[in-house]
Design goal:
Blueprint: E1 20-21, E2 24-25, E3 29-32, H1 47-53, E4 59-62, E5 65-68, E6 71-73, E7 81-84, E8 90-93, E9 103-107, E10 112-115, E11 118-120, E12 128-132, E13 136-141, E14 144-146, E15 161-165, E16 168-173, E17 176-178, E18 183-188, E19 193-197, E20 200-207, E21 213-218, E22 222-226, E23 229-235, E24 240-241, E25 243-248, E26 255-257, E27 260-264, E28 266-271, E29 277-279, E30 282-284, E31 291-294, E32 301-303, E33 306-308, E34 315-317, E35 325-327, E36 330-332, E37 339-341, E38 354-356, E39 363-364, E40 395-396
Parallel strand pairs: 3-4, 4-7, 5-8, 6-9, 7-10, 8-11, 9-12, 10-13, 11-14, 12-15, 13-16, 14-17, 15-18, 16-19, 17-20, 18-21, 19-22, 20-23, 21-25, 22-26, 23-27, 24-40, 25-28, 26-29, 27-30, 28-31, 29-32, 30-33, 31-34, 32-35, 33-36, 34-37, 35-38, 37-39
Antiparallel strand pairs: 1-2
């Protein structure tokens, strides 16, 4: 799902230049055209040149074309708006050789907007499509971020990420992100926060080359991950699994809500999460578990999700995860159990967790789910056209980030 886009190129544009009034600087709009054919009155032929010339809160409008360059928005360029004048028609293309952080677009300033571009590899040198770093903040909205990878797709370099909130704040909204090498979206490190919403994040499908992850929140970062479509992160390696949405030691209170997660090895996978919320999600056709709580996940609410047609369990809780509440979920047509909890304690059915009002047919131990209270027969319950043949549970190879 995309957020509303800008209208098509406007006729009779008014392009203000720089003025001052009583010592105050007025805002400026700078135009960029790589060959000045689309926009003959453009101020610049490269995006970086326009960024260098821009002041606080200025707008840079980029005409259609391919701009083979790195773009860095440094500290001090706060409030800059970088906008493609026509939706996805201005492409920021990775050059053959990248410098610095090897990001195509890097944001270190505050309150930046990047909207409407195609941001693309591939390149043997690229590591990041869009990077938010150095305490910067940015809204990355309605872009197509694609082919952020080596050529060909490689498993030899596992730190190539399409969108990376490394040290800062990101609002990653309404983008289409595909053909990435390792992670579609990564939010990492304590102090980082991102709202990740309304994106389509799509892996390359079954591959033995690399175990991809759609959206990953890790190492103390917090996030609100909502209304995304995440699919086709599938590894054929016998050792490593790919993930749809994974939380690896995230900051307390991270939320995963109202996402559609389908055709991944592990659907929604939590490791060491504390007081997380997983609610309103639809998870289906995972080769392994639909929703997993592992690695000492505690105090987490898993509520009002649907998990169906997964290769192992609908919801799986390992022996180290406790004091979690799993309630009001609909679990059906999962090939091992609809619900499985390997912990022991004083909770439901002798587990260390509370299971209430979950609909399903099978559980281990018994008593974690209840069959539907009414006599209505759901024809879909009789069909079993589930995911590819399931593997056993494999290790998820998370992104090894740089601090």
């Amino acid at each position: 799902m995309r957020t509303p886009t800008r209208s098509a190129r406007r006729p009779n544009r008014f392009r203000p230049t720089l003025f001052t009034l009583e010592g105050r600087r007025l805002l400026s709009t700078l135009m960029v055209d790589d060959d000045r054919k689309q926009c003959p009155d453009a101020d610049f032929t490269s995006i970086q040149a326009a960024v260098n010339a821009a002041g606080l809160n200025d707008t840079i409008e980029v005409c259609r074309g391919t701009y083979r360059e790195q773009v860095r928005i440094p500290m001090g360029k706060d409030g800059l708006k970088l906008v493609s004048e026509q939706h996805w028609k201005a492409t920021i293309q990775a050059p053959a050789t990248l410098t610095g952080e090897k990001a195509i677009v890097e944001v270190d300033a505050q309150d930046v907007v990047i909207e409407g571009f195609t941001i693309s590899g591939p390149s043997q040198d690229v590591q990041i499509g869009v990077l938010i770093d150095q305490g910067g903040s940015a809204t990355v909205r309605d872009n197509h971020i694609t082919d952020i990878r080596n050529q060909p797709l490689s498993g030899g370099v596992t730190d190539v990420v399409a969108v990376y909130v490394r040290h800062g704040t990101g609002y990653i909204l309404g983008n289409t992100i595909d053909r990435y090498q390792k992670d579609g979206i990564l939010v990492a490190n304590s102090g980082s926060f991102a709202e990740v919403g309304f994106n389509t994040v799509r892996g390359v499908g079954p591959t033995a080359v690399i175990a991809q992850n759609g959206i990953q929140i890790s190492d103390g970062a917090t996030a609100d991950v909502h209304h995304n479509s995440v699919s086709d992160n599938l590894s054929t390696s016998p050792d490593f699994a790919a993930g749809g949405i994974i939380l690896v030691n995230p900051g307390a209170g991270t939320v995963v809500r109202n996402n559609e997660v389908t055709r991944n090895d592990k659907g929604i996978f939590l490791v060491g999460a504390v007081n997380a919320v997983v609610t309103g999600n639809s998870v289906s056709r995972s080769t392994e578990d639909g929703i997993s709580l592992t690695g000492g996940t505690i105090g987490t609410l898993v509520d009002h999700n649907e998990s169906r047609k997964n290769g192992l369990d609908g919801i799986f809780v390992d022996s180290t995860s406790m004091n979690n509440t799993i309630s009001n979920n609909v679990l059906k047509q999962n090939r091992l159990f609809d619900a499985e909890d390997q912990s022991t304690g004083t909770g439901t059915a002798g587990t260390a967790n509370t299971w209430t009002n979950n609909q399903g047919k099978t559980s281990n131990p018994p008593g974690l789910v209840q069959k539907k209270a009414d006599n209505h027969h759901d024809k879909d319950d009789d069909k079993d056209d589930g995911p590819p043949k399931a593997h056993g549970r494999r290790h998820v190879h998370g992104h090894g980030h740089d601090d």
